[in-house]
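Bug: token stream looks shifted between consecutive jobs. Job 1:
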Amino acid sequence: MSAGRTFNGIAALCLAIALAAGVAAAIGVFDRGSGATASAVSIRGEQFTYATDGIYAFNPERVVAEGVGWDVITLIFAVPALLLALPSLRRGSLGGRLFAVGILAYFFYQYMMYAMFWALGPLFPLFIVLYAAAASAIVWIVSTIDVAGLPRRFSAGFPRKGMAVFSVLVALMLLVMWTQRIATGLSGDLAGASLLGMPTLTVQAMDLGMLVPLAIATAVLLLRSKSWGYLLAPVFAVKGVTMSGAICAMLVSAALTEGSLEVVPFVMFAAVAAASGVLAWRMLRSVQTV
């Protein structure tokens, strides 16, 4: 397959992913239900409140509120960002490909988590299709990149050390936050662990199993000036903007439901989003055309 046809195919797949994600997110935002809830007791004896209608029915009320906030960021930022990347993808721009992989990594994480975490509902098949398609698109795009030659494609403005330090800090932040919550849950304090009637801590498992190793690998590879570090760094930074922004939106949405904002986590993830944005901009700006 010629390079032109390959990039056109990648752009077509990314267009389909963006449109499907836009549909899923719009349904999540505009079909959240009437707000009706009911109380239940989990198999562990935990009292919690769950939504009784809407697209996310049968999920804890707090989880639905957070999901709507996440869907808002997907709808107004992530989907348009991937759509805006399509022309550069068709041209085969390296910066466009790295940016698109970062957005696709966000979609992969979001919809894999949705498929594993949400109560079974009408969007379940679409969630599976979306995270599988995002993973396929990531592999396809990476296969078109000369990873070994990546260090030569960036100027001296690439923030190698700054990104390495940032990656370590993010890994440490997640480790401290989530190991503490896991320990709280295992001690029997289900409310303190925010289990919310769910059987396990899915987000913590995904972050500790995927994001923390990715962050550490990015830092080590960058400090050693390895070519794969130059691939992971912009992807991790772009995903950091979208993911941290989504967490801030989730906290705001939950506050609108519960009446109070968790200020410390909001400030922490807002800082991560801002730092990710600056680093992503510097890295993508440093890409040199051949």
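Job 2, same session, no restart:
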Amino acid sequence: MSNMSNTLSSAHESTKIHWFKYASPQLFFPLAGKFIPLFSVAAILLCIAGFYIGFFYAPTDVQQHDAYRIIFLHVPAAWMSMFIYMVMAFWAGIGLVMNTRLSSMMASALAPTGAMFTFLALWTGAFWGRPTWGAWWVWDARLTSELILLFLYIGFIALQASIDEPRRADRAGAVLALVGVVNVPIIYFSVKWWNTLHQGSSVNLTSAPKMAMTMLLGMLVMALGFWAYTFVVALMRLRCIVLERERHTDWVKEYLEKTA
């Protein structure tokens, strides 16, 4: 019995060591390259399927008619804007606490995509708000807090770009990212905490969805497509960051010679 326990413990330790080795930029670099084609195919197929369901297959809404179809871009983009920020702050925090270079690089790689989805959420929200509220923009609690999220992304990117030394830039960006995390629950709960024009969430974990299953399916498929797209561009950007920061190492020089 003790031999079996020792064997299981050794296997568990070897598995931990096996996965932890990918914290090295040199070892993670080729692994990221293998994942990019897989997630690229998934992103294309899922986004096409989500777009078709949302804009051609889903039924017309009784109150908002076809104007509501913008939600198939707006809602997944808003979800991704918050989700990516949380993941970015997580990796930035890991890099700050454990001083792992790859974690900080991943945070830097995620920031531009998070900013893009935040801008897309605000832009599509304006197109949705014009026929629904009669205005392109109102200083609604959710809209305002989402705009603050965009500024946090831009601030994170600008702060890191303004500091020449990468490790100092990583630490400064991590502090800003962690402080900004407080804005994410404000975005999510803003429609409950304040009197707001923005409608409440139609999808949550504690109750049944308040929309047709076809509409829900379209949003979920599009969200998965956006998620796969995020993997693709983040890994591509991460590989570029790795090559830039590790350019003086022998393995990068050998890689560049082979690909030249």
